[in-house]
């Protein structure tokens, strides 16, 4: 069993922390500067409050960063100097993951990408990991609701899986929101939705899901779309799809 530090327990992070705690690991978090809502989530998940990030970093053998993608680099920097293994489980571009690894030393870093909802039952949530010590991270989740999968020993590969997956799921959600806005502006939304019902019956429900998700989480997805755009650009492909998606989520949140 390991001592695991969690920076910072939002909905996904708290759920991961509870899975690890239920597995028998000690899971630490730091309440200093965090909101009352975060404190309630951490308490409900049974996490141990060590008050300060400095104490968490000092005591943890493994540190998980689960935060909005725009904050990933700054959060990682709070762990520099720690002997603990940093697992960045954020929605970031492979290049961002490699930049964090370079600052921290890649031997003390594992790249991660989460696909699925906060883990409650088995079969819904996968944690992809890559890097020289990826297997040791996957072992933490053995016999839990989190399906931890080692992609490779190369930092950036797990993030690439996350980026290419979310490019479709969240990118197409943004496209639906944009199409609906154009139809509304042209005064043909009702006619479009009726045509969808007749010829593409899955789209009205997909639009409703996109609207609900964007209203609740769109602010988090802006940075994720920008990271996906950077991933496309690094591969020599157009990045405009997901830069536009970031603007759509900015309008929706």
Structure description:
With 253 residues, the chain is of the alpha/beta class. The chain has two domains: 3-153, Rossmann fold (3-Layer(aba) Sandwich); 161-252, N-(1-d-carboxylethyl)-l-norvaline Dehydrogenase, domain 2 (Orthogonal Bundle), CATH 1.10.1040. The protein is built from ten helices and eight strands. The chain has an eight-stranded mixed sheet, with helices on both faces. α7 (157-185) crosses α9, α7 crosses α10 and α9 (203-234) packs across α10. The protein is globular. The mean pLDDT is 96.
Keywords:
N-(1-d-carboxylethyl)-l-norvaline Dehydrogenase, domain 2, 8-stranded mixed beta sheet, 55% helix, Rossmann fold, 253 residues, single chain, 2 domains, globular, alpha/beta
């Amino acid at each position: 069993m390991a001592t695991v530090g969690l920076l910072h327990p939002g909905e996904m992070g708290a759920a991961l922390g509870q899975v690890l705690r239920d597995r028998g690991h000690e899971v630490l978090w730091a309440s200093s500067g965090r909101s009352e809502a975060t404190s309630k989530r951490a308490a409900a998940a049974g996490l141990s409050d060590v008050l300060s990030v400095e104490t968490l970093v000092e005591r943890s053998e493994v540190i998980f960063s689960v935060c909005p993608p725009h904050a990933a680099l700054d959060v990682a920097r709070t762990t520099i100097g720690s002997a603990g293994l940093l697992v960045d489980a954020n929605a970031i571009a492979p290049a961002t993951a490699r930049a964090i690894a370079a600052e921290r030393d890649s031997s003390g870093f594992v790249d991660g990408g989460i696909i699925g909802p906060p883990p409650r039952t088995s079969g819904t949530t996968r944690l992809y990991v890559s890097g020289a010590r990826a297997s040791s991270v996957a072992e933490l989740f053995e016999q839990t609701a989190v399906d931890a999968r080692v992609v490779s020993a190369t930092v950036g590969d797990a993030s690439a899986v996350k980026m290419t997956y979310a490019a479709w799921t969240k990118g197409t959600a943004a496209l639906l929101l944009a199409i609906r806005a154009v139809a509304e502006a042209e005064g043909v939304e009702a006619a479009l939705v009726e045509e969808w019902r007749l010829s593409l019956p899955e789209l009205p429900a997909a639009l409703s899901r996109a609207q609900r998700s964007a209203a609740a989480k769109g602010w988090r997805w802006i940075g994720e779309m920008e990271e996906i755009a950077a991933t496309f650009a690094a591969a020599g492909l157009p990045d405009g799809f997901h830069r536009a998606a970031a603007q759509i989520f900015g309008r929706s949140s």
